[in-house]
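Quick note —
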Amino acid sequence: MLLSDTSLLALIALSSIACQWLAWRLKLPAILFLLLTGILLGPVSNTLDPDALFGDLLFPFVSLSIAIILFEGSLTLHFDQVRDVSKVVRRLVTWGALITWALIALASYWVIGLSAELAALFGALVVVTGPTVVVPMLRTLRATSRISNVLRWEGIIIDPIGALMAVLVFEWIISRQQASGLISHTLLLFGEIILVGAGLGALAAFLLAYVIRHHWLPEYLHAFGSLALVLATFTLSNHLAHESGLLAVTVMGIWLANAKGIHIDEILTFKENLTILLISGLFILLAARLNLESLISLGLPALALLAIIQFVVRPISVGLCSIGSDLSWQEKGLIAWVGPRGIVAAAVSVFFALRLEESGYANADVLTTLTFSVIIGTVVFQSATAGFVAQKLGVTEPESKGLVIIGANKVARAIAEALKQQDIPTLLIDPSWENISEARMSGFTTLHGNPLSTSVSEKLELGGYGQLLAATPQHEINTLTCLHFRSEFETRFIYTIKTDKSTSLASRKAVASEHQGNILGQDSFSFKEIYSLLTQGARIKATKLSSDYPLPRWEAEHSTSRSLLMAITPDGRLRFFSPNSTLVAKEGWTLLSIDTLAHVVKEESHQALLTSENRASI
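Predicted structure written out below.
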C-alpha cells in the first residue's frame, strides 16, 4: 500500500524514536538500528523513496541538517577539556588526516580498482569520522574522559576538514579534465575556503555573543535566534566559497563554547534535542537511498578494504599522531579501534558522485556505494566490539552506581558511611573545610568548594556517579543544587533531604516541587530530624532480604522503629525510597534504614548544635 507524504514523515519520526529507544534498552549505538531501518524501508520494502518524498529539497535539507549537527557538537568543545591531549587532536586533524587520505586512496586503487582520480576523492570522503556516529557510540562505550575528549574533538573538527579535502580533490579532478592551472587553482580555492569559512564563522559567533551579553535578545529567543543565525551563516558561507559552510558553523560553535560571560545552556539543550531528531531522520533517509545490488556486488574487495581501514590505516594514523604524548598504549589502542564514518561522508559522497556523473565519469556512482559500505562496516563492527575492547584494555569509566552528595556534614557523612559498607562509591562536595576534613579523615572521596561554582565544575569528574543527593540544612542551596545538576543527571536520579523551611514556606512562596528534587526517605524526615536522631545515637543500618526474610516480615517487625531511606539491588545499584515512590524491595535487596526509636529532643536543647552545623555547611 502506498503511503501519503504525511504518513511517510510520521513513519520516519516513529521509526526514529523506536530505534533510539531500542538502542537505549540494549545499550548499543542507535545508528545500527537507524541504518537497518532505512535499508528495510528503502531498498528492501520500497516503502520509502527519499528522492520522491523530498524532490529537489532533499539535499538542501541534508546540508542544513548537517550544519546544525556540527554546530551543536562544536558547542561542547571547551579548550580546558582537551588541554592535556590537544597535541594529539591537532595532529589527528592535520597530517593525521593526510596520512589517512593517502593510505585509503592507495588501498581503494589497488584493492577495488578505482581510477586514480576516484581513489583520491574516495580517500578524502572517508577521512571524516564525525559526531553523528562518534558521540552516540561514546554514550554506550563509557570510555575515560581523555579518550572521549580526543574522539569527540577529532570527530567534530575533522568533518569540515574532510569536506574541504573532498572539495579540493574534486576541483583538482575537474581542472585536470579541463587542462587548466592545476596547483594554482587548488591552492587558491583552499585559501578562499579557509578565509571565508573561518572568518564568517568567527564574525557570526562574535555578533551572537555580543547580542546575548547586552541583552538585545530575550532569553526565550536565544535558541531560535542562534538556529536562524547558524543556517544563515552556513548558507552565506557556501554562497561565497563552495563547501566552506561546515567550517563556518564549526568555528562559530567553538567560539561560543569558549566565550566569556555568556550562558549557552538553553541553546545547547535545544540543539541537542534537535540534533537527535535530525541524526535519526538523516540516517534513515540516506540509508533508504542505498542500492543494495551495488553494495552486494562489491563483494570481498569491499570487505578487504574495510579490514585495511580498520586494522591498518587507523592504527598507523593514531600511532604516528600520538608519538611523544602521555597517552598510555591502552588509550592509544582504543582510539585506534574507534573511527566510524558518519553522515557527512554519506551526504558529500552523494553530492560529488552526481557532479562527477555530470562531468562524464560513468562509474562515479560507485563512490556512494563504497562510502556506504565503509559507513555500515565501521559502525556495525565497532559498535559490536568497541565496548569489549575497552573493557579488556581497562580504559572504561566505572558503571554509574555511585552517589554525589552535596554536603559533608554529619548527616551526609552518616549516609556516606552506610553506603561505603555496601561498596557504593560516594563523592562529598562542601565549601566548609571543617566538614571536608572530617569526611577525608573518615576515608571518603571529597571535593572542597561550592558545588555551584565554575571551579568545582572544572574539577568534577562524574564518571561512575549516576545519582545525586542534596544533603544540606539550607533549603535554597538544596534547590539550586538540584537545578544546577539537572544537565548531568536525570530528574528521577536527583534527591534531596527535606528541610524545615521547605515545609513551612507558604505555598505562594514555595519553590515548585519539580525543581526541588525527590524527597529522601519513606517518611520524608527533615534534615533537622535526621540530625537529631544521629546525635542521640541512631544509626543507618543495613538489612538483606531473602526468601525467608521478605519485605512484609521486615515491615511487620520494624514499621514503628525504623524508617526506610534507600535500598541496594543485587547488582549493586542504589535505589531511593521517597514518599511518592512505588519502590518495592525484593528478595536479595539490601535495605538501608534509620533507627527512629530514639526520641527527638526539643528544638531548643539542640539549637546550638544545629546552628553550628548550619554555619559549617553550605
